Amino acid sequence: MHTGRTTRGTLLHRVREGAPGGEADAAAWRELDDTYREMLLRFCRSRGLQHADAEDVIQQVFARLIDGLRKFEYDRTKGRFRDYLFRCARNAISDWAGARGCQNLPGAGVVPVSEVASESEWEESFRQEWVDHHFRRAMQEVEKTADAQSVEVLRATLAGRSPKEIALTLGMQEMAVYKAQQRMRDRLKARIAEQVEEEDSE
Amino acid sequence: MSDGQPHPTDATAPVPTPASPTPPLSPARSAGDGRGQAIDDHLSKDFGFDSDEWQSRARRASRPGEVLGSLGQYELTLELGRGAQGVVYKAVQPGTGRVVALKRLGAGIAPSDRDIEHLRREVRAATRLSHPNIVTVYATETVGSHAVLVMEYIAGLPIDRWADEQRTKGGDLIPALLRCFLGVCDGVEHAHRRGVIHRDIKPSNVLVTSDGAPKVLDFGIALLVDHLRLPTTMTGFVGTPAYAAPEQVLGTREREDTRCDVYALGAVLRRMLTGEELFEPGASLAQIVDVARSGTRTPASRTHPDIPKDLDWIILKAMAPEPDDRYQSVNALAEDVRLFLSGRAVSAHPPTLRYQAGRFIARHRLACALAGVAIAAVITLSAVSTVQAIRLGTRGKELATALDAERIATAEATAARDQAEEQRRIANEERDRQQAIATYLLNIADGVAENSTGRSTIPVGDLADWFEGAEGALDAVDDPVVQARLHLGLCVMRRVSGDSESARTHAQRALDLLPERGHERLRLLALIRLCSVTSSQVPDGERAVAYMQAAGLGDEYVAIEAWRQLATCYSRAGRADDALAALSKAAEVAGRTGTAADERAAVLADEAAVLLRARRFDDVLAKGHLAMGAVPADLVPTSEACRRASVLMGEAAYRQGDLVLAEAHLGRASRWAQAFPGDGHIGTRNAMRWHARSLQELGRFDEAAALYERLLQLVPPGHETTDLGVWAVRYRYGATLLGQGRTQEARRQLCLAVSKGTKPSVEPGETLAEQVDAAHAALLETNLQFTPALRRSLGDLSWLVDFTTGTPRSAPDGDVGSDASGGG
Is the ipTM of this complex over 0.90? Predict the structure, then answer.
């Protein structure tokens, strides 16, 4: 996965403009794929799709996304990238369900305007996946760059263990565990801030 | 692993029609201002960073996606890839939270207990590999009817996709790709050293992390796949068509060895550099088998002109159809890539010289003898200096033309026997031969240049053997002049390869063969060569010069050589003034004939050498500066004459006791020489030796020791006991070690230094003092002496005597003791 900051900043631009010389920028497409595939997969599964179906839908999401980007349907000044991504995913699932005649899929099919609650449920689910997605990416990056002990502390914390337990297992002072947690929190926060900023840059 | 990742390429997909009106999930912010604030709000609200909430959100995020279920104890989070042999997942080990990659092999036949045991044994070696460029296999398990490999999870791109991405980034692409490729080689070589062959190296089996570090995966899997009778590719062999060696494709399984990995690495390198697959996706089995059989490979640079030719040869050699023609180890391949990266000549080359020579000789026996003459001529002329040899490369064509005239003359001489046939043959082969000779000459000239830079890829001695042997066509030449030339060439070859006895025989033979009249230049050259390979006696030198003058060759290039040779004779006889006079004659000729700067510098360096021998140190320094000044500044570091002058200046400063100045001159020479022509060259070793000595005496022991260690590594095998230089190096190295306080090792080196010299005959019953004196005498005979200071620090020399009499005993314990012999 490429989390390189330099390429991220221009990812959407590269998908949109293609490589120098008018060729499609396959590397940018792949990067987009690498970045969002897992999140989209989880989102689709949370909407009740089987794994194989989810793969089909994701294929459609990317097709729509790239097409939309190239036709300037997505405009940063009018909304965030994640909102646009959500609409692509939402519509791809609807189309897929429609084509399959799937009526029993919750929220599938054409959404009546009255069913606002159902729509916001989709949104909330997507927002959750989006948050998870950034946490995962940030943790992956931070685990690579932070010192081994801090990484251990983070893992143990996320496994639900108390600072006292962690201090005991890792042979640390409890205060040091708190400090490590603080450190990792700051790094995650900084990294996520970068990611979010990059996500919306063109 | 990432095989078959779908890419969104369906341009005809319906345009998304956003479910309108869809309110943004949170208020859109305007570009630019307030951006930082907006992100901060996000972080607090969505990610819970304003409280400990972030922990539970991060926990939620890192839980495995429940979507894929579990495999054994592992929770699957993502499918990474799917192939004929199984599926690869990203997974989490619940207890430890460790993220791993799981490879579930095949769904076919349930492995029996015996299979499992076998599997474990087979894979054990592979799973024990531990190397930064190899994906670690943590365990092999059996879950249900599946064999499962638990591996290190690598977030990375397959190396082909990675290379494609580098290409879009621009910058210095090829070095970046090659450095990554070298990492792959390191990993594979590591496995080979432990007896593990990969057998299925391909881009999707090499992942590159975001730091650019390659990781090879699936070592030993090919064996597993084979054993479990899992579906293989369409051809029925384990491997991937474009990356499988011919012996794999053709099913000659018993011949598979590490060299099939060399082939695959070559194919991977090709793919990285060209961005193209060797076969189109739809290539038929027939096509693949055909290519495997014929070994038809288009050089990559033909379709991609930006790929340097040397890389072509590297790839072609790695991908040779016959394993014997490939690099015989991954290391050899990597070494060549490294040579390329450092800008040096690679070992892979269009059909090797020997091969080319062999083929050529088979076709043109007589022409070959003449080519031999050409070689001899080239070598004769080029042996003077490396620079000249390189220059001669471009003169090959001229020489070939000149030889052509001679060749026709020869043909006419032999025509008496079989005129008609001979002439027809000449007519037929004329064009072919001219080209061949020109090519051959160029190659030889290159080869000689290469040889004299200490990277011998041409065994000059072997070439000489060939010419002297039954196949060598030496006797096929009737013309004594041509024969003489051949002998003169062989003389130089033999001298270069260190066989001065044969060199002298060839020089004498050349002289004997030459007719009394005519061919004066050749005769002079023979006289000079003879003088240089014998012990440079003054009468020999004077004979050559006298002949030169009588023959009226005083204004020709060859006269410079004659005068220089005579100067060498005088200098060795201690007649410095005569030597200097001879050299000023050489300089005069050089001035008149408009010789190259390096040649003039060489004469000046010769003068410096004479002056040094005469102990006129100030003059040496002055002359050295003149030599340096004679060569354009940018050529100084690669000029052999300047290097020699610098060493001489260093030695002069050393003799004057100015160690600091000496070190400066010698260090400079040593550095120049190590860069060019490299430390395999005798001149380089000499510069290094002197530099080390000055460092040692300045007390810079660590630097000196490093140089000595390198020098000892450079001693050619078999020369340990015969090379006087080796004892001197060991002696000095010993003294350096003492300086470093490594007494035991110092003694070992000093013992070796002495024992390689003349064995002193020490009679039992001699007094200790006598024995020490005998040992000391042995040292003196090797031109070495223990300085009083060194002797004091060595203490009682009796350990040395014991060693030299062949009854070694352990050295005394005391590091610094009184000098028992009282001498020094």
Answer: no
